[in-house]
Amino acid sequence: MRRLRVFQSLWSMQPHDATGEKLPLDRVAGMVADAGYAGLAIDLGAADVAIAHEVRPYLEREGLTPLIVAFPRSVESLRETLIMAKDFGSPYVNVVGQVFPLTVEGAIPVIRKWIEMSDQIGMPVQFETHRNCITNDLFSTLSLLDAIPEMRLAADLSHYLVDREFKLPLAAWERGLLSRCLARSDSFQGRVSGRQQIQLQIDFPQHAPWVALFHSLWEEGFADWRTRNQTGDMVFLCELGPPEYAMTGPDGREMSNRWDEALVLKSVAEEIWAELGGDS
Question: Which residue segments constitute the domains of the chain, with CATH numbers given?
Answer without folding.
Answer: 2-275 (3.20.20.150)
